[in-house]
User: Fold these one by one.
Assistant:
Number 1:
Amino acid sequence: MDPEHAVGSGVGTAALQLALATGATPIGTTRKQDKLGRLQELGLEHAVVTSDGTFADQVRAAGQGRLADVILDTVGGKYLGENIKAVALQGRIVVIGLLGGAKAELPLGLLLAKRASITGSVLRSRTLGEKLSLARAFSGAVLPLFERKLLRPVIEDVMPMADIQKAHARMESDDLFGKLVLRWS
């Protein structure tokens, strides 16, 4: 069981499809009940609607008592405590976003008891060499999944670049599903 936060986002829908393509059993968190139908169409069987930021008990229920082996966290600070509760013994939490804040209190006792690990990752600060290496690895491992129709881009809307302020407002509204694409024309 592998939770992915903000599963209806562009990163979340990509992570969901990658998890399914590799045989993992994803659990996705979302704050919006109305995204569940579209998530099910993408193959998500276990969804957690979390309007209050709690999800560990629901992860355990979805896993029939099992906790998460891996948590992909796009939210950050706000979810750290729940992530520690939801991660399995020797599980991993990978933080790739900070939409919920860059700081949080870390329940060290629970982290130690679970012998879990927390890893942070971002592309922006990597060297050009690292980025090239990742691009090659992506080309070899992920592009074939697109060719086999196991992955597909999830695009909510395409808007002209002139509407960038409207696009930004839509992104902040949390009403998007997948990606919003801006075009130059």
Note: The beta strands are 2-4, 26-30, 46-49, 68-73, 87-95, 117-120, 155-160, 179-183.
Number 2:
Amino acid sequence: MPTAAPPEARRLAGHALADALRESRATTLACVAGLGDTAWATVPQQTGANPIAWELGHLAWFAEFWILRGPHTLRDSGFVDAAKPARISGPDALYDSARLVHAERWHPPWPERAAVLATLAAQLEACIEAIPASEDASDEALYFHRLALFHEDMHAEAFTVLRAALGWPAPAGLGLARALAPAPRREPLAVAASRATIGWPASRRGFAFDNEAESHAVALAAYEIDSAPVDNASFLAYVEATGTPSPKHWRHHAGAWQERWFDSWQPLEPRRPVVHVSAFEAEAFCRWAGRRLPHAAEWEHAAQSAPGFVWGHSVWEWTADAFRPAPGFVPGPYRDYSQPWFSDHRELRGGSFATHARMHHPLYRNFYTPDRIDVFAGFRTCASND
């Protein structure tokens, strides 16, 4: 069965939205809790990582910038400026990810932990006070509040990815120490040819990311798709049959296969979805199995229409498609969310065990470069029915 978040997740307003913002912040703080000053200060410079103090400061800056400092203006430089100055988190030159490129985030002296936490607390309360009082406020009036919420949810997962990549313990109190559950048995599902509607309809209420719009029709030939992601046992069979190097998070030790899970090596659980594999590794498995990765439109259509299609709360799933704009794409106010990453990133669907439930949506399009193995990504296979 599809496992999307409840539909109201994208229509949060009033007190429910305020509660969600507080809960998201608590999750963020849990994701960085338990790390000593050394870990806090010495995140290595690498793809997918940020200094912890910078990333937390960026979260405070982002919410204040979009919720409290408008209206906003797109400049010829490509940067977005706000009419009001920063009063809680700034300056823009340090905390805007568009202005301060990734490699430069290790150079400035960032505030101490207590100062960062105080900034976060002040920003959160100021932004909550700015939520429209009416429970029937328009999607337009709530857009930046919802954007800040989902943006923070994404960064909480990014902190969890960081801890796993660096071999740090899983965040305490979030139930992630062994949270990747066994995958359901993988069965082939036949999906009939159809003309499917893909993307977010303009008439649909609630929050939509810019890359989800506009909805459009896609002609899909009949295809077969796995009911669940590929598990460790299946991937191990491929490794042993082909002599392919095992995933980097695996090792053969003392006569048995093990998998590194955050800060410990654990026995490889055959029924758990394979995770921490690149799109290239997923494609190699598919070729060996006489299959292929599903196209994003096939995945989205199956998630909404195929009985027995199980997704979400497990692993992100690589698709066969580069991340590209939908027909008629118009960048949202936060122009750097999608537009800079088209073509050289690969599209993923679904959601991982570390993804907040609000983020699990059949229309949500995630994207990473196809070589990434640090993220909680796996895959399912597909085949055309000629």
Note: The two ends are 26 Å apart (CA to CA).
Number 3:
Amino acid sequence: MRRSAILLLVMCLFAMAAKADQITLKNGDRITGTIVKSDDKILIVKTDFAGDLNIKWELVASIVSDQTLHLALKDGQTVVGTVKTEDGKFDVATKETGEVKAAKESVAAVRSDAEQKAYDDQMYRLQHPHLTDFWSGALDTGLSLTRGNSDSTTFSLAGKAARVTDRDKISVYTTAIYTKSSVNNVSSVTAHDVTGGIRGDLNVSDRVFVFAFTDFEYNAFQHLDLRNIIGGGFGYHVIKTKDTQFDVFGGGSYNQEYYSSYFLAPPDDTTLQPAITRKSGELVFGESLTTKLSARTSLTEQLSLYPNLTDSGDFRAKFDVTANTKLKNWLGWQITYSDIYITNPPFGLKGNDQVLSTGLRLTFGKGTF
């Protein structure tokens, strides 16, 4: 009875081995396991003795597999069936067309049934994404402190999120800066500015896109309660590579500005300036750049110009540039410069607001940031 049990166990082991995939390397070594997937660089094999093995695809000489594999060829075809290797070519026994031979050099990917299903699901999701899919984002923080004859605290916060697919892009962004100073125990706020907006880009072709946006701004020391811009137009991807994208765009916008009443600075601090409401049409011109300077450092930059159509000669300009160096996948160090300029500020006020900040960047998601 004991001998029969041992014989049955040995037969089971042989049966399992017979069903296992066999990978022969160019140096003659053989590996037994289950093929999971491969691209044209790495073949992943699940083994009982060493877990998942990553084997360089260039070292593989032959494959024998009784499980159904999906071979994606470089010409776009996919061949499905069991695989053996004869005369240096993969011989795939398909159900539909019988045996199909494929040179190893023509194979772009190999996937098991489970991996092929996961790949198909991913491709479908890419072509039919939900609104909640593919979001990534970044949170930039900056803090500056001075202590002594005068005390000051400056805090900046910028949030960005984007959902990017092959067809479109949705961007949400906001920036806030706040400064509080104290001299001779008298405290005052010396900077308080908040901007934000939403933009959508839709690719009409590989190079041409259309866009629409709405931006908001609040600036306490320009007495700006609200600036709201609604606009859109067309753009062109001048450079569109894996590491660099450079776009130019143009269109039109409608600008609404609401300024509250205020007193001028001393010695004219008794003169009350009235509240102002301005509404005007604008043109929109600009360019944006996103590029990798190195494996860890990236640069983003955008310049937008808004010539005023209602009041000829006036215009607005907005410039932003950020350099970010990754410390970890989720953590980086960033430095940001922003400049918002208007030619027609309220009487007695400056039309230029500049911010230079540096600090940590926290990121989530993959791809965009």
Note: Residues 5-18 have pLDDT under 50 and may be disordered.
